[in-house]
User: Fold this.
Amino acid sequence: MVVVFPENWRPFSFDASRKQELIDEVRNLKVTNPEVQCLRILVHGPVGVGKSSFINSIESIFRGRMAQGALADAMSGTSFTKKFHSQKFRDVKTGKFLPFVISDIMGLENTATAGAHVDDLMIALEGHLKDGFFFNPVGPVQKENPNYNSCPTLPDKVHCLVSILPADKIAMMENEQVQDVICKLREIRQKATDLRIPQVIVMTMVDKACPEVQKKLNMIYRSKNIKRKMQECTNKLGVPMNCVFPVKNYHEEIELQNDIDILLLSALKNILNFANDHVEEKANY
Assistant:
């Protein structure tokens, strides 16, 4: 049976003015807990799904040009990111840093001796990892490591966990070769749930998952394929559908494009709102 979704099933504006509205919302964000000056977002996911490209795409928007703050690799089959790094974002208009950072980590792989160690990600959620920590796939960080933060405060901890999944390959993530990665993602999500950290999925590579969207990105919320892929993401990790955000990272483009920016900014705005809600909740304890 073919499921037919209503046209424009998630009402969404791609008007030219919408990009500026979203930029202003992020630029004017006020962190609601006075203890926290900067919201901390952690992105994680399998190798090669666009974690660093997502960070670079966000930076490009606020610099008003293409940027590469987080180094990405278009060829390697293993994780290009080797150490823990938190990217700051400077707003080209104000010259000031925006009130959030996005932490990039080594990608997850399907073996016990490659990719980020699950325990390191759990430790990162609690704020124990300092910038500059080199990931060791064989074993998690030890407390004697100089990049281990033994007494993390709320500003050190993760305020929202973002899982990056590829729209074009999500259906293949049931086979034995990648099943271990899904188990790792679920384990990390459970830890975040125990810590009451909000979680979202950013679904990348939407242009590769749907020919209609590849031709015209603003058709994304009229695509049955994209909605099906989003539902598969929800089924894989248990994250609610309204916390799944399909985006296209900058990859081949050399100039900023309005439709790409709007999708990325919409995802970022929601991520920051969830993170802000989390730190506000902590202020009320």
About this structure: The chain has one domain: 42-280. The chain has a mean pLDDT of 87. The chain has eight helices and six strands. The CA atoms of residues 15 and 258 lie 9 Å apart.
